[in-house]
Amino acid sequence: MEKLKIADKSFSSRLFTGTGKFGSNQLMEEALKVSGSELVTVALKRVDVADTTDDILNHLKDPQFNLLPNTSGVRTAKEAVFAAELAREALGTNWLKLEIHPDPKYLMPDPVETLKAAEELVKLGFIVLPYVHADPVLCKRLEEVGTAAVMPLGAPIGSNKGLKTFDFLEIIIEQSNVPVVVDAGIGSPSDAAKAMEMGADAVLVNTAIAVSPQPVAMAKAFKMGVEAGRMAFEAQLAQPVNYAQASSPLTAFLDD
Amino acid sequence: MEKLKIADKSFSSRLFTGTGKFGSNQLMEEALKVSGSELVTVALKRVDVADTTDDILNHLKDPQFNLLPNTSGVRTAKEAVFAAELAREALGTNWLKLEIHPDPKYLMPDPVETLKAAEELVKLGFIVLPYVHADPVLCKRLEEVGTAAVMPLGAPIGSNKGLKTFDFLEIIIEQSNVPVVVDAGIGSPSDAAKAMEMGADAVLVNTAIAVSPQPVAMAKAFKMGVEAGRMAFEAQLAQPVNYAQASSPLTAFLDD
Amino acid sequence: MEKLKIADKSFSSRLFTGTGKFGSNQLMEEALKVSGSELVTVALKRVDVADTTDDILNHLKDPQFNLLPNTSGVRTAKEAVFAAELAREALGTNWLKLEIHPDPKYLMPDPVETLKAAEELVKLGFIVLPYVHADPVLCKRLEEVGTAAVMPLGAPIGSNKGLKTFDFLEIIIEQSNVPVVVDAGIGSPSDAAKAMEMGADAVLVNTAIAVSPQPVAMAKAFKMGVEAGRMAFEAQLAQPVNYAQASSPLTAFLDD
Amino acid sequence: MEKLKIADKSFSSRLFTGTGKFGSNQLMEEALKVSGSELVTVALKRVDVADTTDDILNHLKDPQFNLLPNTSGVRTAKEAVFAAELAREALGTNWLKLEIHPDPKYLMPDPVETLKAAEELVKLGFIVLPYVHADPVLCKRLEEVGTAAVMPLGAPIGSNKGLKTFDFLEIIIEQSNVPVVVDAGIGSPSDAAKAMEMGADAVLVNTAIAVSPQPVAMAKAFKMGVEAGRMAFEAQLAQPVNYAQASSPLTAFLDD
């Protein structure tokens, strides 16, 4: 399968992962290893930047993992920029998942503050991957200010509802010149496969793996789902049709 | 992953396949090998039973493949029983995919003739896997007359529309004491994965692999999709929820 | 709007209704009057055929209402025929809604017993409207034995899930030479409207009206929903398209 | 049914309409009269503001109609404000449907420019009804700057795809303190009814009426669909359930 390039990095795995909600950091590490994920997002808040022995980072030292700090918890562009600077210093990476969600119930992202922050962060030298609603115009504007990818949501974070924004993801994928990573809402390997089949460049999965009674097996399942979907996309799926076409030709052969 | 048992056989692969519509028998053989499929259905009509050098059978000799002759083309129970007897003699197996679809346009199966034929074929010593509409009562009655499995459709044959019978497959899976194989309509690895995630025991895929510009790659994609779905089912997926639960806890950490 | 003809009757209203689950017979009568329904189904079991003062019948005496006795509760063709004879004698009508559902949990209909009973009842002079799964072949066979209409389900009875059998209803409507009445599962006026828009000849609604906190208002809402859908069908709806076509032409008019 | 209040006006009809794409202005007038619509949007571009005999306005003089000029065609906040001022002067109303869609293919609205324009227009004394993506955070922010309503889209303009943003409309309706008008994508009376059933305060329909072969009948159908949906909402619909609840109690009554 084709490698995915974002900014200066290239990835064999198109499954990005998160680090929240796991039963333990040990379990998280095992699951993420098995997932094959090469880009792992970590909430800045969860890292004790003053403590070099911080546990979560110790579990993400494998060279397989590239860290993608995120700004979860901020409510404005200003807070996001401040958090990004902290993250860059603490974690030694200029990659950033930009998340601005003032809403405490559904954690839906703020389009206006996100665009403002993205523009500034790009100027400050960050590789910005913004988490946004599946809004085709917003995605285009983010691309225009220089984000390295766009991360439209499939459904509300943690809802496991799948690709509820399907019709808009289609437009985003069609129009985008930067990679499209479907983030939030993906609840099962079939959801992940479907996103890949429609031409998304990657997916980010966290809740569905982390809260499974068997996170390691579930991580493996998602890895396969993503690969299945990507492989099908590259091999070109047939379109749905209204009329049946029998696999086995219908023939009244007993009349012969 | 758990093995699947149907009648006296057990299968590592939960992807059943068909042999129609491939560009060539050589391509078919390659794709089916890569798919890992251990149960392969062949229309009796397509086999020249008088010719020991028949080409399609020569391409299905690998011990990986168990043959599942099907009665595609028959329109009544009587024709089905006759075809089944021919198939048993010609192919040396008492396994049978029972298909009775009098309708030449959508190839939808006939519930009444199918039940009648199934009852008789079971008495005649066949291992019967009937292709039916996703009708929970019919599936139950087929089980009661002794079919080895039931094969409800996801959507019209060859339509690639996916799991359009989702709500009824759920009931069938919940109620069935024999394996449930989703047959017809599965158009993509994500469809196959979804069927497995909901607890189907296997899926049968033909058109979507055979008509792909790259059938071998597509066969691999379906293999992974099925495994992803089954693994997720065994590891237990979380249910969709209405309220977001952030993977990264929302905290106004910059106020600290 | 075009009138609907079934057998020897013609109907201005395409909303058929049921009599179960209402808070009181008085409330039922009011709601059914307001609904405009001209065909009302009554479970034979609920009628005390020996009692000429039976309450439920007293509430259905308005000439607006044609009674459609149903065989709810029977489990076989034989029971159905017996119940039908009782109904004809007790209620003085040869119209019959044929329901055979052996399954006590989902009340899904039995295709084989239903076809058998339908064939016999037609010979016995009944006007048969069979409740069935949305199975295109079964509907065709029922038409062939002489049923006056077919009544495929939209979703399990009482589930309010709407048109979960959409793709199969489309085929049934396309192929049918007798009226198609969507029965079971219709949970809202929008569901009813959608069934009519796709070309169904009528819908039968019971639960969604009867269990509403305001059955009379809900009956009115369904009446309007059905009429809206039918009128739109007759006036021809546009098909969904992928590309936007602005209602207001997009013109950069300020540049002019 | 409850009246709808927006700013200083109250409406008996919850069906807002547009004036584009009709075969003739005469046909438009007839259809809009029959629709019962009391708020009618007109693209400023289509009005010849210098010509007091302008035809389209002559067809909208009935006191039933309140005009809602829209800014269709503008691409930035600045252009929108300019267009709004022109519209206010020309049409003598400070009501405004704010539309900013730089994208010529799907006509999706720009969230950032829309918020900026809305804020300014509110300060300038306009009653602003902004057309936006179904973005819950954006809708909340628009409400906070003082818009009189929000108009989230159901699907791309003119696509007739229905409520593709269902899950997000639910959140918007739950959170909003101003009326929510579903705009764009509504292709049939059942779509309109469904929007109302979920609690939307109104819908705006244009294409589906205007391009129908029978716009007047279709306008009537939409009127009834909207009323059906609203009435059902007020009378409270039951929720979908998984288990069947028979309308007619299941009883093996023939055993009695």
Describe the secondary-structure layout:
Four copies of one chain form a homotetramer.
Chain A: E1 4-6, E2 9-11, E3 15-18, H1 25-35, E4 39-43, H2 55-58, E5 66-70, H3 77-91, E6 95-98, H4 111-123, E7 127-132, H5 136-145, E8 151-152, H6 166-175, E9 181-183, H7 189-197, E10 202-205, H8 207-210, H9 215-235
Parallel strand pairs in A: 3-4, 3-10, 4-5, 6-7, 7-8, 9-10
Antiparallel strand pairs in A: 1-2
Helix pairs in contact in A: 1-9, 3-4, 4-5, 5-6, 7-9
Summarize the structure.
4 copies of one chain form a homotetramer. Chain A is α/β, with parallel strands linked by helices and about 260 residues long.
Keywords, please?
homotetramer, 256 residues, alpha/beta, TIM Barrel, five-stranded parallel β-sheet, three-stranded parallel β-sheet, 9 helices, 38% helix, globular
CATH topology title of chain A: TIM Barrel
Task: Describe the main β-sheet of chain A briefly.
Answer: 5 strands, parallel
CATH-level-2 architecture of chain A:
Alpha-Beta Barrel
According to DSSP, the number of beta strands of chain A is 10
What is the subunit organization of this protein? homotetramer
Order of helices and strands of chain A: EEEHEHEHEHEHEHEHEHH
Q: Give start-end ranges of low-pLDDT stretches of chain A.
A: none
| Coarse structural class of chain A | alpha/beta
Let me know the average pLDDT of chain A: 91
Give the spatial strand order of the biggest sheet of chain A.
5-4-3-10-9
Q: Quick one: CATH superfamily of chain A?
A: Aldolase class I
Return the domain count of chain A. 1
Pair with the biggest interface = A-B, 81 and 81 residues
Helix content of chain A: 25-40%
Helical stretch tally of chain A: 9
Shape of chain A: globular
Radius of gyration of chain A: 20 Å
Portion in strands of chain A: 15-25%
- CATH class categorisation of chain A: Alpha Beta
What is the CA-CA span between the terminal residues of chain A?
Answer: 48 Å
Domain Thiazole synthase ThiG (chains A, B, C, D): 5-249
Keywords (chains A, B, C, D): Cytoplasm, Schiff base, Thiamine biosynthesis, Transferase
Catalytic activity (chains A, B, C, D): [ThiS sulfur-carrier protein]-C-terminal-Gly-aminoethanethioate + 2-iminoacetate + 1-deoxy-D-xylulose 5-phosphate = [ThiS sulfur-carrier protein]-C-terminal Gly-Gly + 2-[(2R,5Z)-2-carboxy-4-methylthiazol-5(2H)-ylidene]ethyl phosphate + 2 H2O + H(+)
Pathway (chains A, B, C, D): Cofactor biosynthesis; thiamine diphosphate biosynthesis
